[in-house]
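Dear colleague,

Following up on Tuesday's group meeting, I ran the structure prediction for the two-component complex that the binding team flagged. I've pasted the input sequences exactly as they went in, so you can double-check that nothing got truncated or mislabelled along the way. The structure tokens for the whole assembly follow below. Feel free to forward this to whoever is handling the docking comparison.

Inputs:
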Amino acid sequence: MPGSDPDIPTIRFGERRLANGLRVIVAPDRLAPVVAINLWYDVGSKHERPGKTGFAHLFEHFMFQGSGHVAKTEHMAIIQGSGGVCNATTYFDRTNYFETLPSNQLEVGLWLEADRMATLLDALSQENLDNQREVVKNEKRQSYDNRPYGSFYERLMAAVFPPEHPYQHTPIGSMADLDAASPEDVRQFFRDWYAPNNCVVSIVGDVDEEETFGAAERWFGPIPANPAIAPFAAPSLPARIGREVRETVPDAVPLVRIHFGFRTPPFGAAAFDALEVAAQILAGGKGSRLHRTLVRERRIAQDVALFTLPLVSGGSICAGWATARPEADPAEVEAGFLAELDRVAAEPVSDDELARARALIEAGELAGLGRVEEVADRLSQYATLFDRPELINEQLPRYLAVDAEAIRAVAADVFRPDNRAVITFVPQAAGTGAAA
Amino acid sequence: MSGLDILARRPAPAAPREYHFPRFERARLANDLTVITAHLPGRPLLAAQLVLEGGAGHEPADLAGVTALLARALPEGTAQRDAIAFVEATERLGAELHAEAGWETVAVTLEVPRRHFGPALALLAELALQPSFPAHEVERLRDERLNDLLQSTAEPRRRVERAFAETIYAPGVPYGRLLGGDEASVPRLDRVAVAARHATLLDPSAATLIVAGDLEGLPVVTLVAEHLGSWPAGDSPAVAPGTPLPDDAGSPRLVLVDRPGSPQSELRIGHVGLPRRIPDFHAVAVMSAILGGLFNSRLQRLLREERGYTYGIGAGFDFRRSAGPFAVRTAVQTEVTAPAIADILGELRRMREAPIEAQELRDARDFLIGVFPLRFEAAAQVVGAITGLVVHGLPDDELDRYRQVVAALTEEEVHAAALAHVHPDAFSIVMVGDAERVVPGLEATGLGPLEIVREAVPTVAEEA
């Protein structure tokens, strides 16, 4: 393998499936007295129905509001009182729950996860629903509505995916749908999706493999499966948007920012790996092409970005932006940004650029695989999305195998005028935007 | 259902495995540079940090931001190569190398796979000792800072932090300024000012290099001597190591920066806090965890879990060489701004008036003790912690003693920390929000005269 670092660890893990369908992955790592527990439930915002957007995420909040044997707010109190940290995130394809604990507290973590998987609805109340709905609405205000350029994510997804596609709306959902959520909706969501056969649990750290499989069986084994859960059927998605989508958004911003979105092959495709390396070469640091050209040499942009999202259902998105300097002509910034993408599509990147991108990707892998929390999340990810946890050891070789021609080919395929959304945020005239 | 009965009983923890903060060793080069190494088996991504004495707090007020600009300009060209050649050389090693200014020090930070440590260390030395500060790159970074300041006017969190620091400190106190400089000072900066500032930092006897990671087979001190040994000993440092900064407080105020259309008010409530070197540091840490550090802190339980006013609220002390800010930080829905402030002030008073409950102490103590090993998984985290010891002049066993000291704290000691360091009469309240909608509620609270700052900040188009 070109340039491969002998210090990159191979993650060794064992894997079993319980009778109720729960997939358990255990990877001992004795370096520090800590253990990471990570659950991926195969349900995300893509499973939501019209009028029920934001439910997967709202539901995630209830998983911290108590269960059959855990009182409201007690989940976090037990984790923190055990010397651990925990959180959860909701994404398009999945919802994950994770905690990192001192390794002697492993069973406490498994118990908490099993209790909410088995008995969550015992604790659900209208009062909790009302409270967490307000918390989530404040999360939306804080993370999106009260931020400059805060609506770009929603707008890009809506532009790059067609109206009937589940990636068209983002996990935070709409205020109106959140307002309409009832306790019965929450109960139904749990019954529909939360079951051992729709979950992967990965346990990484200072543990004995056999004992840990035993503990997983003890805590999760009695939870009944839900045989009604069907695999997600992704609607067909054309490879390209089919036209250029353009939008201009007046907003509370001092500088013009141009956001770009392209429809791409799905995460997991070889072309997607090539696109990630292309993004590294284009915008992965101060030596990257976009930074060099627009920020350093021409000085028309304040900052630039380009990245992919790891989505699997039919296609994904490559997104980016350039913030224009105040004196720059935004049209010139847009043209300059697109010209760099075109150049990658037209001629092969140099050997040195590829070597630098590989070195940075390898160093990133050393950082990621050095953290039990990250290893556990990746094992759950590869098991959930591809049914192949061993991809954790294959992803780096896949990146390193990407060559200049693969990068050129995917760039030519993706960075096309008929496959892009261009959303330009412009400063609005003072005093025109205030709403009562 | 009988199998599920097992869930009725919470399992007891097993015996904890022993943990100690990684051991580290000191060496001193002939030029008086201190080198600290921590060998962490199995951590092949190495971290190194060169800590130079003399940060932004020590720069002249009219040149505020010069130290931050200097730090950003360090990788932009050296005696041997231009900016692009330098960044490419760094990337070929898979290295991350940059410099950052703090209030007290400037830190040059490296992360690199162990097989490339030698050449990466050479680049670190080249950046720190031989920067060329090309005028056109310095000017670009200065202009980027000015654009960044312009952007920050639209970001309520940055706007409120700036107003809060300006409010709680007396005029002229460095901590009350922006570390990166402001619209008045930044235009004055150029390569001459940057180079002059750089010269004041270059004294190896006031510098420390910290290296951590799997150092097996790596002659670290020899490599450091090779690359930093020729750094000439200085006469005397421009700033004596450990020099404290002034930290005088301003008078308590109630300040609202108007941001028409804001769906939330960004709130900061607090006063000048504490320096890091205080005898009751650990009691303060536990006290602020109970107030606003834990997920179930008093503030979180009331404002998030009971009221639903916010996505999150926190409180704590920013420990610096002199007294950094003590602040409650949150963003609340616009409509509840006044009642949220009343709730926060109530919890701050209760911190003094009501005793610490045994369960609260246990929760905070067990959390801080238990997460301690989780904080040091990566070499960079270990380097960061050792840097704290260097910056604050703390003893080498400070981190290894941390858990014992926290374990021994009593309710009374934690409550005493609240009585000594939380001062309701000194609170300033600073917010960024929609004046039209929040002023009536604020006036009704009788919190005192309200100062409203109206400036040319862009307004917000609220989504329906």
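DSSP finds 15 helices and twelve strands in chain B.

Cheers,
M.
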